[in-house]
Specification:
Blueprint (H helix, E strand, L loop, with lengths): L1 E5 L4 H12 L3 E6 L13 E4 L5 H8 L4 E4 L13 H20 L2 E5 L26 H17 L5 E6 L1 E3 L8 H10 L5 E2 L3 E6 H14 L5 E4 L2 E4 H12 L6 E2 L2 H18 L7 H7 L8 H7 L6 H14 L7 H7 L2
């Protein structure tokens, strides 16, 4: 079958394209520019455009059987230029409109950030209320889901996935967590921050997405989670795998919160992304329990061990030259 993918250069998109090709599907991708490293050497058809442009999305969906909408902007610094809203909400509406008009089935990569996190003592399942107030990113993911559901009510066949924190290989960005692993290896991370999140391997997410296309129920949401681990546990796992000691210090939460505005201001001056922000700290203090039984029961979602994901993340960084290739010898000895 022939399928379309938005966001092919992102962490999810890069893994999704590879798995779709492995499954024998023809793949057409939407790209804003040529010579994308995540697509180098892959037998894919490209369509130039942007999810914010309805015309290019319509071209993308001509003659395909399904569209996987993975394009999105992740932000921990609000939405000062309005790009988060434009891409995550308006762009999602454009994809849903085109899918409805052409009769193409849609799989939308939403996020667990679309759910209200409180009350923190109660596990989150797909029935949890969606965010109304909150960060710009959280609101945008809830808004994107709402746009898809409007089209489902008019006949669109669509399934909605809610992944947790994604880690794993083929992280060309690299992603925010990918940069954390790289910085820890190079000892550029002076201290850890308290808290943690539920982490899931990107390969398990995209495999579940393909199964959602094949046998998911229209209009249904599916939480695609792994397991919760603190930043300290992740750092310890990385240290066991790489042999590089983790940061010794953990910044107290009150101090991290007090320092976040200054980090944000300094990052704006330098035009870089801050190490952490008030928004990212709130994520690490969010709900710890995401109920994935529905995705397991209906889609066969089965997350692999966290240790395997951390190991394979480092292996891919070493193979791609982001980390020293000498690390591969150690990784070969790690089970």
């Amino acid at each position: 079958m022939k399928v379309a993918v938005t966001g092919p250069s992102g962490h999810v998109g890069a893994n999704l394209v590879r798995m779709l090709l492995e499954h024998g599907h023809e793949v057409r991708v939407l790209v804003r520019r040529e010579n994308i490293p995540a697509l180098a050497g892959l037998d894919v058809e490209t369509t130039r455009g942007d999810v914010r442009e309805a015309e290019s999305v319509t071209r993308l969906l001509e003659g395909v059987d399904a569209v996987f909408h993975a394009a999105g902007i992740i932000s921990i610094v609000g939405d000062p230029q309005g790009l988060v809203e434009q891409v995550n909400v308006r762009g999602t509406a454009n994809v849903a409109d085109a899918a409805l008009a052409t009769g193409v089935k849609m799989v939308y990569f939403c996020s667990v950030h679309a759910f209200e996190q409180a009350p923190l003592h109660l596990p989150i399942d797909e029935s949890r209320t969606r965010v109304v107030r909150g960060t710009a990113y959280d609101r945008s993911k809830a808004g994107g889901e709402a746009e898809v559901r409007k089209r489902v009510a008019r006949g669109l066949e669509a399934m909605i996935l809610h992944p947790t924190g994604i880690i794993g290989p083929h992280d060309f960005g690299p992603s925010r967590m990918g940069r954390v692993f790289v910085d820890m290896y190079h000892r550029r991370l002076p201290a850890l921050v308290p808290g943690g999140f539920d982490w899931v391997d990107v390969r398990d997410v995209v495999e579940t997405a393909i199964r959602a296309w094949e046998r998911g129920r229209t209009g249904e949401s599916y939480i695609v989670s792994g397991r919760w681990a603190s930043m300290g546990e992740l750092a310890t796992l990385a240290a066991e795998i790489t042999g590089v000691a983790p940061p010794r210090l953990e910044t107290p939460l009150w101090l991290a919160r007090a320092g976040a505005p200054f980090m944000e201001a300094w990052a704006r001056v330098r035009r870089t992304e801050p190490l952490y922000t008030r928004e990212s700290l709130s994520v690490l203090q969010a709900n710890r329990a995401y109920v994935r039984e529905k995705a397991t029961r209906e889609l066969g979602h089965a997350p692999r061990p966290l240790h395997e994901s951390v190991r394979d993340t480092h292996r891919w960084f070493a193979e791609s030259g982001v980390l020293p290739k000498s690390l591969l010898r150690r990784l070969d000895a790690v089970t």
